[in-house]
């Protein structure tokens, strides 16, 4: 988990640095090109859209009702478990804040 947060932090800093460079470049020649951040966003959105379309296409090709039912059952089971553990965590947190033992 720690490396995942470090990776996210690195990517955010990289985007901010690219935006700062894009702002400097935009001030130098505003009329010639779009800022780097805008280009990166457009590129990421196009990658995301193509990946999403491919995943939806694959899902439609391999759609099985039994698999769909299993996925729905797993989802309902996992959300029920999350609700239970969230309730336990909330109770523990409230008891710690109130000072009850």
From TrEMBL:
<dbReference type="GO" id="GO:0016004">
    <property type="term" value="F:phospholipase activator activity"/>
</dbReference>
<protein>
    <recommendedName>
        <fullName>Apolipoprotein C-II</fullName>
    </recommendedName>
</protein>
<feature type="signal peptide">
    <location>
        <begin position="1"/>
        <end position="22"/>
    </location>
</feature>
<dbReference type="GO" id="GO:0034364">
    <property type="term" value="C:high-density lipoprotein particle"/>
</dbReference>
<keyword id="KW-0345">HDL</keyword>
<keyword id="KW-0442">Lipid degradation</keyword>
<dbReference type="GO" id="GO:0043274">
    <property type="term" value="F:phospholipase binding"/>
</dbReference>
<dbReference type="Pfam" id="PF05355">
    <property type="entry name" value="Apo-CII"/>
</dbReference>
<keyword id="KW-0730">Sialic acid</keyword>
<comment type="function">
    <text>Component of chylomicrons, very low-density lipoproteins (VLDL), low-density lipoproteins (LDL), and high-density lipoproteins (HDL) in plasma. Plays an important role in lipoprotein metabolism as an activator of lipoprotein lipase, the enzyme which hydrolyzes the triacylglycerols on chylomicrons and VLDL.</text>
</comment>
<dbReference type="GO" id="GO:0034361">
    <property type="term" value="C:very-low-density lipoprotein particle"/>
</dbReference>
<keyword id="KW-0427">LDL</keyword>
<keyword id="KW-0813">Transport</keyword>
<dbReference type="InterPro" id="IPR008019">
    <property type="entry name" value="Apo-CII"/>
</dbReference>
<keyword id="KW-0964">Secreted</keyword>
<dbReference type="GO" id="GO:0034362">
    <property type="term" value="C:low-density lipoprotein particle"/>
</dbReference>
<keyword id="KW-0443">Lipid metabolism</keyword>
<keyword id="KW-0850">VLDL</keyword>
<dbReference type="GO" id="GO:0060697">
    <property type="term" value="P:positive regulation of phospholipid catabolic process"/>
</dbReference>
<dbReference type="GO" id="GO:0042627">
    <property type="term" value="C:chylomicron"/>
</dbReference>
<keyword id="KW-0445">Lipid transport</keyword>
<keyword id="KW-0732">Signal</keyword>
<dbReference type="GO" id="GO:0016042">
    <property type="term" value="P:lipid catabolic process"/>
</dbReference>
<dbReference type="InterPro" id="IPR023121">
    <property type="entry name" value="ApoC-II_dom_sf"/>
</dbReference>
<dbReference type="GO" id="GO:0006869">
    <property type="term" value="P:lipid transport"/>
</dbReference>
<comment type="similarity">
    <text>Belongs to the apolipoprotein C2 family.</text>
</comment>
<keyword id="KW-0162">Chylomicron</keyword>
<keyword id="KW-0325">Glycoprotein</keyword>
